[in-house]
Amino acid sequence: MKLPEKNWRQNTLKWAGDAQGIAFIGYALIAIGLSASRAMISTGTGLLILSAILAVIKDPGSAGRKISFYTVITLFLFLLPLLSGLYSGDIQRWAELIRVKLPLLLIPLAASQLAPPNIRQLKWIVLTFSVCQSVVAISSFVYYIIMYDSPFGVMAEHIKVFGTIDIITKIHHIYFGLFLAFSSVWSFILFMEKKQPLLFKRESLLFLILAILNAILIHLLTSRTGFIVLYSGYFACGVYFILSNKRYKEGILLAILFFSAPFIFYKTVPSFKNRIDFTIWESKEYLVYHKLWDSSMMKRYFTWEITWDIFKSQPVTGIGIGDMREALKKEGKIRLQNMNKAEDMTEAELLESPHCQYLENLAALGIPGFISLILAGIFPFFVRRKPVWIYIFGFVFLLSMLTESLLERQWGVTFFLMITALSGLYTKKEPD
Questions:
Q1: Residue 302, CA atoms < 13 Å, CB-side half-sphere
Q2: d(Cα 15, Cα 405) in Å, to the nearest integer?
């Protein structure tokens, strides 16, 4: 039956002007795009900005009053790098990084004008995010089976050389490991909490399946960042369930799984065992015997030492984000001449990033940049009445930044902002 033209227009205009509805679509696109498509990330970000504009048009007088203190803290993660352009020598590199960090300005301001998604919308976003990680991971394994005559041998070789297999969507494996692991923890939390309303029957069972599936997949991918997120996340879950509502059974069960799972996977999954053994060997070779080989962990230790010295040379303002890469390359080339290194280890193999967000901020932005990063990381722990997953996310993200510069690429910046925005940290409004 055809609706009257008047009603059709009213319904269309109502949907078009529904800021929360558009924001929900934006979050969903970002959740998919993080591991599937950068274009979807940009589209989702654009929809969030559009929804915020509509909200301000609807109620312009309250725009400033909705901004939370956390929004101001996060803005410094953009403003300090922006100001570093005044003393960065490489302006082209500075401009590239500012473009990457621009969401640190746009998304907090946009999210501050909107209520966070309600529980039904949040569940759809988590479900979409977790399913997408599963599909991308499984598709990546299937690709090897289709394209190679000896798929498992090629996988083993790629894991040995690169640390993991190639991801079919071309996302960097470090970030994909982060997403895959957190999707497991996030799904498990929703399984345990069983909040109403339900999306469909057996909803909790699906979240449990996704939690288990993605935990297994992260071990097959052998992502070290993924391991950190997975195990620290489930450890935090265990502590939470023990302390909250005295749920000792769930907490003890998680504790048992937390301590036994690594040993089980070590004994049963060869790629996981090789990854752990190789990491131990890398660390011992550099830290004990002071040798440098073309391996990711050794090069991290080498780069961390250089980055710390760069910070000490300019502790107040840092050297500027634009000059960070060139400073590492220049100093690394000099120090490499005096290293006990492999014959094939050349300056071309050295890292161009500290792979530690704390050291990155210290060297590039000085003490103010470090303080702003720490405040953005720990502030959520002092905010009450927020969902438990935001505290667990804060915990695992703080740990992940020890070994990765997660806020220097679009994937990491957008993921951080999506999770914090979904929790409502940027606004004083409550979910509808």
A1: 32
A2: 40
Q: Tell me, yes or no, if the pTM score tops 0.85.
A: yes
> Which of these, 410, 392, 423, lies nearest to 171 by C-alpha position?
410
Owner of token pair 């990680």: 133
Q: Residue 424 is which amino acid? A: G
Look at strands 340-341 and 291-292 and give their pairing.
parallel
Closest Cα to residue 84, out of 72, 74, 75, 95?
95
Closest C-alpha to 414, from 111, 185, 91, 76: 111
Backbone phi, then psi, for 247, in 5-degree steps?
-85, 70
- Gap between the Cα atoms of 27 and 40, Å rounded: 10
Distance CA 226, CA 33 (A): 19
Residue 219 to residues 234, 278, 404, Cα–Cα distance (Å): 15, 15, 19
**pLDDT tens readout for residues 1-23:** 444 444 444 443 344 448 888 99
pLDDT at residue 209 in the model: 96
- The closest of 303, 302, 296, 319 to 369, measured between CA atoms, is 319
Give the whole-angstrom CA distance, residue 350 versus residue 330.
10
Q: Which residues pair with 341 in a beta bridge?
A: 292
Task: State how far the Cα of 94 lies from the Cα of 196, in Å rounded to an integer.
Answer: 47
Dihedral sign of CA atoms 13, 16, 18, 24 in order: positive
| pLDDT tens digits, 356-405 | 999 999 999 999 999 999 999 999 998 888 888 999 999 999 999 999 99
Quote the pLDDT of residue 245.
66
Alpha helix segments (H runs only) across 222-356: 224-243, 248-268, 270-287, 296-313, 324-336
Token pair of 273 as six digits: 């065992």
C-alpha span between 62 and 72 (Å, rounded)? 17
The per-residue pLDDT for range 156-215, each reduced to its tens digit, is: 777 776 778 889 999 988 999 999 999 999 999 999 888 888 888 888 999 999 999 999
Tell me the one-letter amino acid at 161: V
Both ends of the chain: CA-CA distance in Å? Answer: 32
The enclosing H or E element of 340 equals strand 340-341
pLDDT at 431: 53
pLDDT digits (tens, 9 = 90+) for 236-285: 888 887 777 666 777 677 777 777 878 888 888 777 787 788 888 888 88
8 Å CB contact between 146 and 173 = no
